[in-house]
Amino acid sequence: MNTKETKDYKYTGHIGQTFIYLFKLFRIFIFRNDWKVLPMAAVIAGMVSMVVGKGLFLTMEGTLQGAFALSCVCIWNGFFNSIQLICRERPVIKREHRAGLHMTSYVSAHLIFQMLLSAAQSAITIAVCKFSGVQFPESGLISPTPDGFIAELFITLFLITYSADILALMISALVHTTTTAMTVMPFMLIVQLVFAGYFSIPDILKDVTDMMISKWGTQGLCALARYNDLPAVLIWNRMVAAGNVDLGGIMKLSDVMRMIEENGLKDRVLSELGKATQNAAYVSTADNLISCWGHLAAFSLVFAFLTIVFMEFIDRDRR
Fold first, then answer.
1. 20 to 30 A from 261, CA-CA: which of 45, 84, 100, 138?
2. What beta strand segments (E) does the chain contain?
3. Residue 194 to residue 209: CA distance in whole angstroms
């Protein structure tokens, strides 16, 4: 008489699988040289600091350029972190999913790991800016201390990096090859840059900026930097460059500029020029900063949810 033996197999639960894959990601980070993204973040931050650091947090124009550049740095870091993570091991994930892998656990491990990586890159960016001599404001919008400003700057940079990171993770879950992922990444980066609100765009496309990480990142950084309270120097500098203009044969423009400086009116003129070029979107209030944080956090949640959805259908992929 034949007897059929049955065995009860105990599968690892959701939390256990999350930690298994989290430790796997740390091993990959070390042994596949993925750790190179950290020194790369330092190099990029250093280049940006050299180019726009002189006017950052000091003048309107320098702050807007610096905020836009820092947003670009964070988005680049986030994209580069995870754009190939899922698609490069897609066949392995398929086999493990059929063997009992929970996609929520797999994606959760990535979310936790990328959170830590984004935090490290944000801290490195701030440290490099500080080392490069960028002058930070003396207080934040929520906390009236220098440490408060650094903490709020860290949160802003982290949310920009992390939301871009999870967007790239979602793309990696959607595409099927690393080649496709690396082809899509530059296009997504260009879209983020064009619709950041930094460049003039047609009115019909302005609503598109609300869906951009770059827009809320730049807005949050400008609000934190007190953009509307800073002097505007671009017009003054251009007038100085055009100093040889003859004003009706009486004097030259350079003479007028010199008279303004000799009478101690330059700071007042720069301040008035700043008031004339204020931007309501960059108002320096805690509510505005928190609103920017909320939008960036919401992006991360939506991208994370869509990543799980795409991964749940991985078995239907026959390619």
1. 138
2. 246-247, 251-252
3. 9
